[in-house]
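Checklist before submission:
- one chain only
- standard amino acids only
- sequence pasted in full

Submission:
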Amino acid sequence: MRFEYTYIYGAVCAQRDIGEALVINTVSKEAMEEHLKAISKRVLGDGHAVLVMDRAPWHRSLKIPDNISVVHLPPYSPELNPHENVWEYLKNNFLSNRVFEDLEHISKACCDAWNKLTSEKGRITSIATREWTQFN
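Returned file contents:
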């Protein structure tokens, strides 16, 4: 097989400078629901997360945990999604212009890239903060 893919299901909290991700070899509603469960576990105490999502087909009719609300972006408006900068950072710094031996190496590179992003203090806050998302 010439092309194989893996996907990073990722979310960040710019306020807390944290991220949560799953690296999975499929795009599906079920995979997205697993990601939502993982995000839900990272919400502190009786807190509530607001998750910004585009309108990808697998983002519709999901089982959303009680401590998460979803805001769907208008069509064709990636500039409104703070997470787009996260994807650009990962691609530009760790994942682009590389050839991988196999799917295992792709998945490992994705995990390594995400771990580097989340381990660098202040990085998520610096690239995912938008003035309109700030809370006081």
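Reviewer check: The mean pLDDT is 90.
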